[in-house]
Amino acid sequence: MEDIEFFDVCEKEETAATPFLEQEKDDDDSVTDQFWNMANQQNGKGHKIGEESEEEDKIRSKDASEGVGEDNDSSGEIQERHMNNGNNNNNKTMKYADRVQILNLRRNLNQLDNIAKEKDLTIEKAREELSACQLRIEMLTKERECTETKIEEEKEAGNTAAIFRLQAMHRRLCAELGHEKELELKIASMLKENVYEMWQIEIEQGKFGSLRDQLEQDEEELERQCKERAEQRIQKEKTAARLAERKQQVGKRKEMEACEAYERRHQKVVEDAHRNHEKAVQFLKKSMSRIRQKEAKEELKTQEHMEKRMQAVLSLKNNITSNRETLQTLQVRDKAKALEAKKQEVKMRGAILAEGGDITKEIFLHKQRVELERQKQEFTEQQKSRKIEIVARILQEEAYVEKQKKHQARAEALRSQGKLQDSLQWRIKTWQYIENACEDPAAAVLQKSWRTPSACSLVDDKSSSVMDFSETALQDTSHENDDEEANETLAEPEFTGLWSQECNLYKVPKDETDPKPLGASKMERKIFTENLEKLRSGIIRKQVVSDHEFKGCPFYSKPSLIHFKDFDVGKTYKKKIILINASYSVNFCKLVGVSEHLKDFINIQFDPPGQMSAGMSCEVVVTFKPMINEVLEGKVTFLAQNGSFSIPLKCTTKRCVLALDKELIDFGTHVVGETISRTIILTNRGALGTRFKLQTSVGDNGTCTTAKYSLERMVIPALDGITSEEKASSSPVESSIYENKEQVSPVHIEEVRQTCMMGESQKTENNLGSSHVEQLSQDALITEADLEAENAQSPAEPPPEEEPIEITLGKVTEGEIGPFSSIKLQIIFTPSVPGDVHAEFEIAFDNPNCKPLHFSVIGVSVDVPVWVLNPNVDLKICMYDRLYQDCIIIRSRAKAALRLKFEVCKELSNHMELLPKTGYIQAQSSFSVQLKFLPRHSLPEDAGKYFDTETRVLEVPMTIMIADKFVEIQPSDGFGILLPLESLNLDIIFKANKAKEYSFELTCKSEINRQFKLSCKAVGVHPPLELSHSLVKFAATALNDVSTATLYVINAHVSLNCFTHAVPRIGKGEIAPVGPTSFEFLVPEDSPVTIMPSVGTVLPGKKCLIQVYFRPVLSEQLIREEAVQMLCRADAKRTMLKKICESEMQKRKDETVAGKKDGKKPSFAALRQPLRVRSSKHAAASSGFEPPKPEEIKTNSEEYIAAQYSLTRNFTGKFERYIIPCFVASGDIDEKIGSENLKYSPYNTLYLELHCPAVAPSVVVTSNNGKNIINFGEVAVGHRVIKRITIQSISQEQLALGFSILNPNGPFLLVNPVGTLEPGENQFLFISFCPNESKLFFETLDIRSIKGTLTLSIIGQGVAPSIACSVEGDMLDMGYVIAKEKVTSTFKIQNTSTLPLRYSIKLESLSQTRDKEQQRLPFFIMSPPGRTDFVGTQNYSGLSVFNIFPVEGVIEPGKSQVFTVTFSPDHESLYYSDCLKVVLFGKEIAREIWLKGAARNHMMFVEGGDPLDVPLESLAITSPMSEEAAKGELEEPAKSLLLSLEYIQAETSGTPAVRELKIGAIRTAQFASKKSVEFSLDSLPVLQQKGFTIEPVKGTVDRGQIKCISVSWVPPADFDPDHPLMVAAVLTLKGDIKESYKVLFIARVVCT
Predict the structure, then answer these.
(1) CB 469 within 8 A of CB 459
(2) Cα 527 to Cα 521: distance, rounded to the nearest angstrom
(3) How many of the other CB atoms lie within 10 Å of CB of 1499?
(4) How confident is the model at residue 698 (pLDDT cuts 50, 70, 90)?
(5) Residue 809 and residue 856: Cα distance in Å, rounded?
(6) How confident is the model at residue 749 (pLDDT cuts 50, 70, 90)?
């Protein structure tokens, strides 16, 4: 310990030494500390080893155990311990721990020697430095003395200048001499310290001298043992080698024996093979002769077959020749017919022109009539062939049935026919009875469900049975195949089976057909009557199991929807569904039927399984044979025991489901002159193909903008053609007009349009008559001005050829897209003018049901004077340590020569090189750069992020910089033409390369050789901070979704040295200080951009992470304006409807009056004309409706929510660009001081450019007014609440959904994730909340799709329910009461939590487990540690002793509830008790209260004393008192009371023993003659003699009062402590009767 303290002192002194000595001293200290730590560890290990050896030697165990504690403080004892261990180890082999100890000791001693050597070297160095310092002091002293001599000489000479110079030198020498002396003192003190430390080290070495000797002996012993072990191992190896050699010889001997045996066996096998071969040759000859004969026969057959085939080919050739002639004849006839049709068409055109009609319209109608006639003829022929086929099938079936009947025995046929007639008669009577009984609509439904087709019902009428049988056979193709097979197989079976009894109807026993058997009992008749009444009234039985009524669908179907997708007319489709009994018990299932309009196409195969237990299932086969190509929807209805249910059925035709993989193509920023291509994929997920055409959208101007100016740039496709949507219209009239556009006059076009408008208006009126007011079609709201504007609209003129074409289409612009396929469409961007370019494209389809698809293309072009012809260099597959080269061509569009610099990123500087690194490129020429790539094995580590370890692909950016170019003139690089009286604006773009002041001149030259000079000045600024990215391009983000981008604010300013690197400054101003630098992003208000953190401080050489969030939302002002417009439109619709109704009523009246006058019926349809409203504003003005101002619309109103929902669904997309300034200031931000105190310069401002495209969301929330926040509110801990959220797909394609993972240990749970969403489909999400602790929970659930993410915020507050009860303690004592009377008590429970508490009060005596608990032994027999049975004596009547009101309810937060407890015993007992439990939410027991009470038959009672019996009573009922005894005041037998007293005896004094007895009188209306109870205690002298003091001895107690008798005891002088004192006395009570109690007093002395 002293050594450790000494080294601590040395460390403290060395901290004040020079920096040169600090490092050396620290190293020495670390080595010394390491040595001492190792030595201490070895000492501990030595102790353990010593203990192990001493355990073997029992004689020395005591000495070893006593010396263990002292070994850590004395090095001498360490040596002694080691020597003892060494002596023990000499007698036996060293253990592994001993060898490790020797090695560690040797290492520690070597370290101590090294420390000594190093310290010796340090001392020598210090002495050398001290001698050198003393030498310098002597030299400086001599120089000082010499200088003083010279000063005296110059003073005498009067040379003032020399004096001043010498005095300055003297002062410098004095200062240096003082420094040297200080240094001498320091070196001397340091030398002294080192010498002292060296002494300490030598002392330590001396301490370990004996240990060193012992260590050498141990090492020698260890070496000797190693040699012995080596010799032993050598002996073992020699022994093992001898054994291996012996084994090898034995193995060779066995191998030779095996070879000899193998040769013998082989020779025997060869001999056997020769014998077998001779026999086989004989059999082979015979077999070959038979095979040759068989082949000869087959060859003859083959020749005959070939001859037949040749004859067939010749006949086929002749038939082809004759058919060719027939086809030629038919072709000539068809040509003649076509020529005749053309002639008739020409004649028709002439006739129509003569009449002045519309040629296109009439020809189109004529073609439609001809086509309709042809279709009718084909349909008639098809019907005839179908009828013939049906009749043939019927005849075949009849023949088959007749043939089966003939094979049956005549006797059996007669008998079965008689039974059949009887069963048919009974069945007919039964159905007539049911039809008469079921007169109401409810019963009619049941009747329909029972009338299922069966074999029995087909025999009622012969003609109808044949037709029904044929229709049933035609419903399924599988039935047809079975029937055909049956017709083809006409062989009679050997014996008859079940298959021969198909036509034999089910033989119904007579007892089953009789609805009311003669021998039925009364119960059976009653049940039959009740069932008949239920059948007549249509009542459905409820299913109640365990007091729970089943509500809901009795059967679940799997799948839940019967969907026949992409069907073809004429084909047959089957689907199997499974019905699962989801009710509580046994249930039935019966088929009712399908929807009325689906009966011609749907066939159901369902065999009722009878009774089905809960969870059991049955199968249903649905067959669909479409006859029309339409979408069909309906349902299949079933009837169960507890209600009907239906399964939806849907049949969809083939359709086109078209979608694009992206709606926005962003080319990014590219150089003018490059050519970039992108691909967009058009996918058809439907089963129907269609033609498509890619074209520009109508009205797309393709505008582009730059920072200072804008140029209109047209974006056209590479293929010409009409791009309007009108050409793709589905109307045949309009399409015919466009096809014959040159021949149709404008008058005809106007007539056709008016006709279309009239049709639309009529449809609108029909809708108005049948639908709601708010569902009016917008076609009826078209104003006349809108129609005129539409008629006057002219197609867009083609762009002039002089306009630059930057975004063009690839080779594929139109074609056919098949079902379930995709096509790649190429978009090419060729920037020619700097700026932004934007284009809109649409893909139109020939299928009228497919809406056009739209997508946008954006790009940015920059005018860089040089560009790379091939921006991507692909070196293919490379190998390490091989050289690869390529040539990069650089082109220039500048008008002057430029100096270029080529750089490779730092990570690849050892692997890649560009040569030359600097070069000049001439004006409008090219320059080649050599790329050399020599990959080394360290490439994956050096490349970092540029190298993908999985794909082994290297992508490296290379930079081409233009040196000395900081000024740019735009547009057209400063070249242009200036017309007379014209002005032109030019942009001078300046880019500073360094932080300095620039001054230069620009010269403008004209063709007439005039020059104009413009002086320019600029200041280059190098800000203290820099951004890792100055441009952030967000991906297309849906409304209310969030996109995140990450960048860094970097502070690279770590040094003020301006010669080694560029330093931040403004021009030539002051260099920014090195230190913390603060920044602040100033985000515009109401922008969808958030920057976190927006304010911060960056330390030198550090960087700060910045996250930019883009969340597009609809502005409140836009939503309010849309709400106002929606209100105006709704009012306009109401006004229009009112006017239409008024005009209709007026026209009806006029028509009625005119009809009465003329005697004709009025034509209402001819008078219905559409009314048009000019605009919603005029309508609102005419109706007196004043629209509210946008500011008056509240955010939580229905109008605001409806407008927000409408804008979200109709959102088409938006692109915004933001430039965010970032202000920079030197210093750290202090929250208290504020940022205004920091030094700030506006020239150091950084700018962050954000590109923010917003698109419409694919999935929206329709529940909760469209809000994305799910608030569960406050929920009790441990309880679960489930909320339902409705989401809807507003996309035009199927969406596959994915969900983020909620916290698995959190309270929120997504119950039913949804896999896919169809277009327009609604799905329910169920989210449960079950908090496990009392706090606020918040999580987010992301619903991800291909097009975006919908984020749901889930909030819930877990609250621990808590109550406060007015009952103190755990027991409520009801006191004493007269038997068969009642007493009440109240207590209060207050809700101290913040949520309503649903409570219920339960008594332990009424629990369901009470019967089981009573079967156990009583607690006083089992002797448990404490009483656990709270239920005591109960009433004989079976009624509860304690009643509580109310039993259940809800306590609001902060409120309280008063509970009334009623105690009503029916017999005398002192042990009435029960346990009251307050249960919250049906689960948690919040409070338990022990209810206690006692009942007496008389008005007095005594309490106190020790218990003499158990708190249980016998089940036997004692006989009541006789009337005579009850009338008189009799004395009951004496009862016993035990009162034990303990006198506590201390050393000086004692504490008297005190007990109490309570005498009480019960307040009751009975016993009116007795108003009080008298009591008295006898044997008072005897008690006093024994040391007892009783107060009072006698007295009276009023009704409802209690008096205490105090008993105290002090031991008398003659008391023997070894024998307890026992004294008896009689306590007499007089009330309605007289009672006596024998009180036994037991006293004893207890010493403490």
Answers:
(1) no
(2) 10
(3) 24
(4) low
(5) 13
(6) very low
